[in-house]
Amino acid sequence: MFSKNLLSYYTRKGYIHLKYLDKFDLAEEILSIFKKCKNKSYKEIKDKLRLFEKGKNDYKIVRALTGLLLRKSEFIPNTALNSKIIREKLFDFGFVIDDYQRNKIVTKIATEFNVSENTIEDAFFADLPQEQILNKFELDEVTPEDLIKNYNSSLTQTLLFYASEISIIIEDNFQQVFRMINYFGLMYQINNKKIKINGPASLFKNTMKYGKNLAKLLGFIIVNEKWSIEAKIQMKKYNENKIFSFNLNSKDNVLFPCIKKIENTFDSEIEKQFFNDFKIFATEWKIKREPTYIKAGNYVIIPDFGFYKNGIELYLEIVGFWTPEYIEKKIKKFNQSKTKIIVALNQKLKCSSKDFPGDVIFYKDRIPMKKILNILKREEEKEIQLRIADNSSIELHENIVDITSKAKELDLNPEVIKRLLPPDYFIIGKKIISSLFLTKLKDEIGNKRKYSEIHKILEKYQLTNKVLDLIGFKIFWNGLEPIKIIPKKRDNKNILNS
Q1: Which of 318, 321, 317, 316 is nearest to 348 (CA)?
Q2: Are 109 and 90 in contact (CB under 8 A)?
Q3: What CATH number is given for 269-384 in this structure?
Q4: Which of 22, 39, 280, 315 has the most CB atoms at less than 10 Å from its CB?
Q5: CA dihedral sign of residues 376, 377, 380, 385
Q6: Which ranges of 115-206 would DSSP assign to H, the alpha helix?
Q7: Segment (H or E) for 5
Q8: Considering Cα of 74, then 79, then 84, then 90, what sign does the dihedral take?
Q9: Helix runs in 201-259, H state only
Q10: How confident is the model at residue 154 (pLDDT cuts 50, 70, 90)?
Q11: CB 285 within 8 A of CB 278
C-alpha cells in the first residue's frame, strides 16, 4: 500500500478511476538509478531521484515506484565501527571551541581504535538513516514488469482502504478466498453470487488493521481467471466527503502480480476414488471439484463436488472423520441452507440421515456410485417432467437438425424434445429428421445398393444406419463387413411404404 498522497486517480460522473501503468519505460529508468547507486548513501539516492522527478507528468507515480524499490533495498552504516560508541566517546570530552581542539579529540579516539581520523569522522553519524549506504538491492529479482505489477496492486490496495463496501464475484478458488476472508477477520454477506465485504470506511475503530487485511485479500481475488470488484469509495472532492463507485474486473487486463494459487487437489483417497468412479459411470454428466459456494445462514458451504447436465446442478459433500464439534457445526449449516446438497456420510460417524435435510448416502471405504446415479436420474426426471408440463408440445420447421443445437435454441433438455417430438419426426443418432426428409433421402439413394455408396450419403447428413430401417432397407453383411443394402420384405413395417 501507499500513503494517501501518492494515490494517483481521477473522478468522472460519480466513478473513480485509478491511473494504472502498462508501459515499462519509467520503471526501467528508476531501476537504472538504483543500479548505479550501489554503496551510495540514502541521502544521495534521494537527491538523484528528486532531480529525476522534475519535469515528469506525475511525480506521485515516480515517488510510489521509488518507495516500492526502497522496500526491497538494504541500507547499512558505512563503517565497521559502532557509531553509537564512537559518539559517546567523543561527547565524553565535552564541548569544543575550535577545530584544533576537535581534531585533537578525533586523533585520540582514532589511536584508541587503531584506525584513521577519517574513519572516525565517517563513523560519527554513519548509523543515521540518511547516511547509511545502499548495501543490497534485489536486482536479480526485480524487473520493470514486476515493478509495474506491484505498483498497480499497491495502488488498488490503497484505494480499497477507503472503501465503505466491496462486492466481489469469482468463479473459482472459493475455498482459498473464503479461508483468507475468515483468516483476515473480514465481515461479509452473500447476495446471490456476490460476496459483499464491509470496507474499512464502514467501521468505527481498528480501521488501519482491518484495511490492511482487506488489501491483502486482493491478491487472492485476482489470481482467478474471471473476477470482478465493485466498491463504494469515500473520498473528498472540493473539501466535501463524497461516495464514488469503483469497478474493476479481469477483462480490464490490468497488470497485476500473481500469488501462487492453491491447487484444487483431493482432500482424501475417498474423494479421489469417487471422482474417478464418476468419470467412468456417469459419462453424460460433468463433474467439478469445489464448484461454488452456497449461502447457509451467516456461513457458506463449499461442496466437494458439483454435477452438471443440461442445466441441472446438483452438489455433493463428503463428510468423513471429524470432531463432534465440527459435525455439529456442519449439520447446522446444512439445515440453514436453501440449496439441497447430497451428503455422503461415513457410517462410523454418530449421525443419522435425519440430521441432514437432503439425500444422505452412507459409505464405508468407497462411495456407492449406484446410489449417486439413482439420485441423479431421479432429479433429472423431475426436471424433465417440469419442463414437459411447461411445454405441452414443440414446433419444428426444419427437415433435419442437430438435437443439441435445437435444445439450446429452445432452452430445453434434449430428453424433453425427444418426448415432445411431433409424430412426423424421428430421432436418428444426434439428429432430428422429418418424414419429408426420409422421402428425399430414399429418392437420393435411388437404385444405389453398394454399402460404400450409401455410407457416403449417410455420412454427409451425419446419420446412422438406423435410418435405412426407417425407409425400408436392411444391410446385407459378409461376416463383419457390410456389403450392400437390400429392400425389406413388403410385410415388414417401415415408415415409408413404396
Answers
A1: 321
A2: yes
A3: 3.40.1350
A4: 315
A5: negative
A6: 117-123, 144-160, 174-183
A7: none
A8: negative
A9: 207-222
A10: very high
A11: yes
